[in-house]
Amino acid sequence: MTSPFEELLPGTQRALLHRIAVAQSEGRAPSFVAAVARAGDLVWTGSRSSVDGHAPDVDTQYRIGSITKTFTAVLVLRLRDEGLLDLNDPLEKHLPGTGVGEVTVAQLLGHSAGLGAESPAPWWERTPGSLRPELSDVLGQQPRMHPVGRRHHYSNPGFTLLGSLIEAVRGASWEEVLRREILEPLAMDRTSAQPVAPHAGGWAVHPWADVMLSEPSEDLGLMAPSGQLWSTAADLCRFAVFLAEGDDRVLSAASVREMRTPSVPPEAGEWDSAYGLGMQVQRKDGRTLVGHTGSLPGFVAGLWVSVDDGVAAVALANATSGPLTAVVAADLVRIVAEAEPRIPEPWRPLPEVDQSLLELTGPWYWGTYSFGLRLGADRGVELQPLRSTGRGSRFVAEADGTWTGLDGYYAGETLRVVRRDDGSVSHLDLGSFVFTREPYEPGEAVPGGVDKEGWRGL
Fold first, then answer.
1. 392 and 384 Cβ atoms separated by less than 8 Å
2. pLDDT tens by residue, 285-337
3. By CB neighbour count within 10 A (0-12 exposed, 13-18 middle, 19+ buried), where does 447 fall?
């Protein structure tokens, strides 16, 4: 039986349509198409056009520009997960002779390799890739603009290097690997490196008059992994769901979560935005959005996902400037999340009880700071301060009986149970911090010892 909650309410649908209608009108876009996915399913689509009777649908292709980078990053993470490279490997190990081989794979993914933002003239987005047949043509005479690893500096040549890295390790073209490892498993059969009808044409709209100029559509050659792809609103919603949930046929949920985690500090003044591994991260309207934006002459695109809300949105337009697709996509997520908040799954007890874990739950003290430990699913635990001050984290269980922090101050840190000779629990050790059942509990556990006179008044 179909749940009535799978469809958006009429008021929500009208608000979404109104938002894209305003965007197309005020942005003076020849056409505009958008889609929303919720809980893994496409739940709304809408479009507007300057030509009556020719509005695009969610299967009409548009160029998506730098959203392509997220696809390239997924392919790199696949190589890492297969053990074919490490993110800390220098580029030279797998792609020798570039002249910038000391930068790491991770630095390229997070735009912290210090490389230039663009390739040398002529403007690469409006000229054929045949003008840049070698990586040296893409990198130019001065490929590094900043010290390696010191700051975030967006780099199209950096993702060109990642595309060539993929080809070197796989022994096949970037386009072939993309099709085989992402597009086919996710059933994205309307995403391609070259346009496949029906597709939109790219236009420039005059800034001071309501007239248009056709934009060229070039094959970017070596720079294709930075921005070549054509896709549709429907296909990108499938991709957005994957970026939220993972798919073991492509990339695990843990690896996708790693992509969504900020990798370098943001630039000064950009504290609400960051960059992960091939993914943009931003805080907007009180929620965290992950995804990517894109543009090429004639096209602008935006894809955002709120993982917590289970909502994703895509907005595409065929104009060089004007329609703010990234802003619109974020607004579509907000409209759905606020009008129809996610309904949580029903609470259910754990399928079985592990007494050795159950005895760990409850209050713990680091010095005089109070914390509560809760038992979660899959033997995971959560340690949170009982007052507003203190550092908390979620922990995932490891095979050796320890736990590894997933977030916050203790991300990556090891939590372990220390037992006495008789098997009883003495304390918890978290990255050398000692947690006891009582504040400064007497005994041998607390570093530096505990005053033998104990607690006292005035």
1. yes
2. 899 999 999 999 999 999 999 999 999 999 999 999 999 999 999 999 999 99
3. exposed
Angle of helix 10-26 relative to helix 325-339, nearest 10 degrees, comes to: 160
Q: Residue 69: which H helix or E strand, with range?
A: helix 68-81
Rounded to two decimals, the pTM is 0.90
Work out the percent of the chain whose per-residue pLDDT is above 70. 98
Whole-number Å distance between alpha carbons of 374 and 368 = 19
Q: How confident is the model at residue 270 (pLDDT cuts 50, 70, 90)?
A: low
Q: Cβ of 26: how many Cβ atoms within 10 Å?
A: 11
The SS3 call for residue 417 is strand
What the block records as the tokens of 129 is: 């890739």
- Three-class DSSP category at 436: strand
Buried b (16+ CB within 10 A) or exposed e, 407-425: eeebeebbbebeeeeeeee
Q: Region 55-73: what's the mean pLDDT?
A: 97
> What tokens were used for 130?
């045949």
**Tell me, what amino acid is at 132?**
R
Q: In the prediction, which pLDDT does 193 show?
A: 97
DSSP characters over 157-205: HHHHHHHHHHHHHHTS-HHHHHIIIIITTTT-TT-BSS--SSBPPPEEE
For the chain, report the end-to-end CA distance as a whole number of angstroms.
Answer: 69
DSSP string, 236-302: HHHHHHHHHH-BTTTB-HHHHHHHTS--BPPPTT-TTEEE-SS-EEEEETTEEEEEEEEEETTEEEE
